[in-house]
Amino acid sequence: MTFSLPDECIANILEHIHHYDLSTLHCALLINRRWCTEVTSLLWRQPFNVLGRIDSDHAINLVPAQRRRLLCGYRYVKLVNSYLPFLSEKTRSAFGIRLNPTNRPPTFDYPKLLRELDLSDLQTAAYYWCEAHHPVSETKGGHNNTDPEKTEYRSLADELCKLFLDRCERFDFLCFNEKEPNKYQLSQLQELYPNLYRFTPSPKCVTRLNGLVIGPTLLEQLYSTGILKHSTNVECLRIEGFCKPADYLQSFIESQRKLRKLTIDGFWVTKLQTVLPALNSQHSLTYIEFYRCWLNDIALLGNYSICQNIETLRIISCRRNLNAQYFSFTSCHFPRLKRLDFIGIKYDYRTHTSWVGTWGSPPIEELSILLTRAAGTLQEVNLGLWITDIESVLPTLMKYCTNVTRFSATLTRAEDVLILLHSLRGFTQLTELSISSLNVLSTQDVLTVYSSYRAKNMISVPSHIRKLSIDTEWTSIREPLRWLLKHCEAKLDVISWICTLNDVKQSLKIIKDYSMRIGRIVQKPHVTGNPAFPDLVRIEVKLCEEDKKAGEEEMGMTRHFF
Asked: Which InterPro entries does the UniProt entry name for this protein (predicted)?
């Protein structure tokens, strides 16, 4: 007697292993035809996210950057080859593509299964394919022409894009953002991507689109072809790098029915006055992110009723426009704000000035005003403050942030870490704490600071903390970690820190000693690495009240990327 699982049950199982275990997902292809069809749909829903697949592959332990690049290229080439049979004979001839007549035709219509498409990822795949098949283009004037701009990869990407827009039944996510938007004029892009600028897709393939990223040069053309005109149910919208006011942008935003998350990135030249009026009609909008925008313009939110609905506000790497009229946040009121991110700020209390750098940011007074306008409702505060003296900021934090549950800050002095820990005793609702310290100190310097503050009874993690993350640039994390956990009042559930490869074993021993002291068991640690910093790894350890023998059996380590 055979037993058939309901479709919903199979879908839930596959969604779970799709995120956590790709190798098991591939094995599920062999169960039967029904499972094979479902798994294939999942695998080909977002195939161009090759880098994300490599990063989540636990079988690859800290792959060097060069090998990682080669692996990406190999997978991209295989991916493009899978789509070549679906191109027209005329298109294949133009690229010199000859299919092996002995090969079996594809079992599935792969372009039809696509649900998420990023133009940048598509360009990358086309580039690797052209590099593998035509590494040196035809010579002109006796010189080898190896300039990637003059190869056919953009034309191939354009043909593939037309294929997907023509055959795909439904898109969930689209990203139309040129890899180098400032490098080409509109006329050049129209020549490079004739299909994208002229091809009109079926309205049904974009009517259910819920995620969209728009770059600086494609908006008007995408609107005229109907790709955007029929996309009225977008839930998550990201707008990047506009250089001039665009009436199409206002019209597009006003046409949305379900917009709940909006990200605006790179509006250094374009004033947000071109966008903010359109947001007034978006009553479902609760999440707004601003990257690299003028604070003068962000403060104008106070003139619109949208402030009443915002639950998450993220202001990252923004700064004041000194050449324009300054507007304060005093007119803003956020009665429902639950999360505030104020990141990318360096503040010097001695001069009351902000960091004058690539993304200069405002002084701490701006944060005080925002916290005042959201007092009583905040549950999470993430501060990317590059603070030279924590004591200059503490009055503001103690006044407005004592009811938050998550808190993160970037500090520049070792002693400020201890001062902050001591002050957080008053944050009685706080359960997750993340502290970054940017100073490179010797172990002896750190111990001197810790000994001094221990004498003042100021070196302890408050008892209500459950998750602690420590990111430092200290030459050795062992002694600071030992001191913090030795005098830790909290029974931590999760501990995360960054250390050198030489310190991994000693750090884990310190964690094990701490877990025995509080009567908990260390579960399997996760050690993650970054190819850009081969000598550093992040370790995350979970502690739980389980059988000691079972816990010791799990004391191995898994490795992957972060």
From this structure: LRR_dom_sf
Note whether residue 546 is domain-resident: no
- Report CA-CA distances (Å) from 88 to 115, 163, 200, 256, 502: 22, 9, 18, 36, 56
524 part of a folded domain: no
Distance CA 94, CA 92 (A): 5
Residue 152 domain flag: no
For residue 261, what pLDDT is reported? 93
CA distance 265 to 314: 11
What tokens were used for 18?
């799709």
* 223: enclosing H helix or E strand: helix 219-225
User: Total structural domains in the chain?
Assistant: 1
Domain that holds residue 36: 7-41
- In the block, tokens 């810790």 appear at 450
The set of residues, in sequence order, having a beta carbon less than 8 Å from that of 82 and lying 6+ positions away, is 106, 110
Please calculate the CA angle 487-477-469 and round it to the nearest 5 degrees. Answer: 70
Rounded Cα gap, residues 336 and 288, in angstroms: 13
Is 120 within 8 Å of 143 (Cβ atoms)?
no
Where does the pLDDT of residue 428 fall: very low under 50, low under 70, confident under 90, or very high at 90 and above? confident
Phi, then psi, of 140 in degrees rounded to 5: -130, 125
pLDDT by residue (tens digit) across 329-347? Answer: 888 888 889 898 887 755 4
pLDDT tens per residue, range 68-98: 556 667 788 888 888 988 888 888 888 778 8
Tokens of 458: 């100021």
CA distance linking residue 20 with residue 26, whole number of Å: 12
- Supply φ then ψ for residue 544, to 5 degrees: -145, 165
Place of tokens 């970690």: 481
pLDDT category, 312, cuts 50, 70, 90?
A: very high
Kind and range of the H or E element at 54? helix 50-55
Provide the 8-state DSSP code for 350.
Answer: T
- Beta bridge pairs of residue 38: none
Span 299-320, average pLDDT: 85
Torsion angle, alpha carbons of 57, 58, 61, 62, to 10: 60
- The average pLDDT across 145-156 equals 61
pLDDT tens digits, 274-294: 778 888 888 889 999 998 888
Q: Is the pLDDT of residue 172 over 70?
A: yes
Residue 110 tokens, joined: 């792969």
Beta bridge partners, 314, equal: 289, 341
Residue 32 lies in a domain: yes
